Amino acid sequence: MLGQVKVENLSKTYLTRQRQGLFKSQKKSVEALKNISLEIYPGEIFGLLGPNGAGKTTLIKCLTTLLLPSGGAAWINGYRLTEQDNLIRASVGCMLMGERGLYWKLTGRENLLFFGALYHLERAESRRRTDEIIERLNLAPLADRTVETYSSGQKMKLAFAKALINDAPLLILDEPTNTLDLPSARELRAVVRELNQAGKTIIYTTHIMAEAETLCERVAIIDRGEVLALGTVAELKASLGREEVIHIEGVISAETSQVVQTLPGVSQAVRATADGRTQLTVVGQNQRLLLPRLIETLSAHQAVIQKIVSEEVTLEDVFIARTGRTLADDTRVE
Amino acid sequence: MISLSLRRNISAALAETWLRLLSVSRYPGELFIELIVPTVLASMPILLGQAAAGPDAAVNFAAKTGTTNYVAYLLIGSNVFTLVTRAFWDIAYWLRFEQEIGTLEAVCLTPTSRLTLASGVAIYSAIRGLLTTSLAYVLGCLVFWVNPFQGDVLLALAFIGVGLTPLYGLAFLFGALILKVKETNALIGLMQWLVSFLMGIFFPVAVLPPLVRAVALAFPPTWMVNGVRSALLGVGFFFETWYLDLAMLGVFLLFVPLFTREVFRRVEYGLRRNQGVGEF
User: Fold this and answer.
1) pTM for this prediction
2) Which CATH class is domain A244-312?
3) Closest residue in chain B to residue A29, using alpha carbons only
4) Per-domain residue ranges for chain B?
5) Contact (CB<8Å) A120/B269
6) Which percentage of chain B shows pLDDT scores above 70?
């Protein structure tokens, strides 16, 4: 089925060489993926989260046919991996190696037209798609300059544009906001959302948990070649069984705090007064739903809100709980 | 609807040709150098010969090579050698260069096969090589004041035309070796010395030791350069008739690409089984 990915017990082992001084080296086997199983549904944004060296890119390279898996099976857009590789390649748009996948002596437009031809688009269709993508990503000022004159962020943007050229039902984006400044990263994420709303399935790898939280419907956390956790962001956070704490400072009456206590999702609402200021501490689950409800309730009861501080369970907390390490740790094994 | 037709494969190959032509047009210095290198290369033995030649030089040269026109003999050798090394640089080095800059992985993500892309690169190499070699040959003849169009020019072009496909097949085979071994400079350096020696760019292969001569005759460019010399200067075909020598090149044309295709497929499979084409 278009836009669907199914992975069953996928494994990948490769040989690498450890250098030991002058002319000496030793071969070493590296198990990059260990029996990965997951399913990505059509039309969702699926996040692959994990530190550097976790196996995210290796998994992506297996799914996009760049690597042959050592074991297991996978189906991408209904095509079986290793048996229908050409059809898989034709039906997937990829942004894998960032700016390294571009021809620097060609212009942005020439790069897009070239890859359009490699994706077997008719010339007229390729030109139309190129013009459309250039306009959508605001690349018009750069499009007719050679890529070697682009900044790092502009090259990443063009690499993203290249992933869109074949209008594939499945998009695979490997750390697409790497080296982008904040406005450009925000713009790219907005385009990703638009593409998803238009029906595309998106696999999005990142080591920035905030990105995964805001963009992805479901997330798989990968470490050392294994899927440690898989589910929606809320499910993963809830899996820790921790509640979230919101501190609200302002002018809040005792009666109002009692009303807050009765709100769904609130397990505790404790009011304290100090130096003429009131602080209401609310303990509950799913801050994203709870906070708007709190603000609405406090406003309806004429409370004055001066400050809100929240302590929230993050995906990094989930990762730390599962592995004992942070996302910043590099787990690549050479 | 995904369409992977032959027509679209041809279109993809031609897109690769166009990409190469666009890229080289942004390096005009490279094209200029190609126009003068064959003449500079040939000029050293030509001038050495002129300096060291005795009264019987032409007769002695003709006894070994079949022609007294040693200037044209050497110019033909150096120009065909440039065409041959151009093929190795354009195709073998192309693979490794793309691997290092990251675009090899990018093209491997598309449904266009590497062999289709190699065909596109081969077309580009043929266009560039034939154009610059022809101009360089005429330039060299002008410098040394010999007639570039003596003999059967069409037959000479036929030998080059038929010889190009097995030549590109060999170059692609070499490229597969470079991808596997990952040592570009050493292999290409070795290749250039070996090619110049086996082809006999400045001497007839008849003077090579028997075993080396046998290896040289298994090498398509040797038949190409001898075919061009025989057509233009009458030095003598290996099988004494032009059609038999051309048929031999035709045999190479049939078998070398098939052999190369199989080797490249296995090398690529081996790379994908390990760390992939992107690992350099």
Assistant:
1) 0.81
2) alpha beta
3) B274
4) 6-46+56-273
5) no
6) 98
At residue A110, the pLDDT reads 95
A55 vs A35: CA distance, rounded Å: 12
CATH 3.30.70.100 in chain A, residues? 244-312
Residues within 8 A of B (CB atoms), A 157-176 only? 162
Residues of B in contact with A94 (CB under 8 A): 109
The architecture (CATH level 2) of A5-91+168-238 comes to 3-Layer(aba) Sandwich (3.40)
Q: CB–CB of A67 and B275 under 8 A?
A: yes
B contact test, residue of A120, A172, A332, A334 with most B CBs within 10 A: A120
Instruction: Report the chain A residue with the minimal C-alpha distance to residue B106.
Output: A101
Q: Write the pLDDT tens digit of every residue in A236-254.
A: 887 776 667 788 999 999 8
Global ipTM: 0.83
Instruction: Write the pLDDT tens digit of every residue in A58-107.
Output: 999 999 999 999 999 999 999 999 999 999 999 999 998 777 889 998 99
Nearest by CB: A66 against B3, B16, B272: B272
List every span in chain A annotated with CATH 3.40.50.300.
5-91+168-238
* Residue B60 touches chain A, beta carbons under 8 Å: no
pLDDT in tens, B91-145: 888 888 888 888 988 999 999 988 888 889 999 999 999 999 999 999 999 999 9
